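Appendix B. Chain record.
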Amino acid sequence: MAKITRDQLAGPFQPYLQPGETVQSAAYGVKQPNLLLLIVLIALAILPGLIAVMLLTKNYLVALTDRRILVLRVKNLNLKTPDVKEVIEYSRDEFPGLEAKTSTGGLFTHIAIKDKDRPFVAKFHRAFSPTNREDAMAIASVVSGGVTAA
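Structure tokens predicted for this chain:
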């Protein structure tokens, strides 16, 4: 199976872009339930536990444009016709005033934006696509004002 490209990840954002706005980076991330909850659910019953984990996991497509950061919460990863459940947008100008935390480790880049009206938390796996780590780090850099924890 071929790896997903940056252009394919940027495709679902086209209906949400303003005139003249371009996608610079796009990444796929997830927010999974607490690890302890995952272990308990799977320990109780393997198949129902795995199904519960799938249902509790939130999937996100995040794009950095020349004007803002767009977050699409999608039902599943269908890039041709995504089932968008929620759209969150942050202007690039508002990040100096938003409380945000980002970090990059061996496998994941983590991004958390602590806005009371538009909170966002996700982790981006480096192996999802050839550019997922690079693009997630570019988004994290903007979110954190250029300071990303290692």
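Further analysis of this model is presented in Appendix C.
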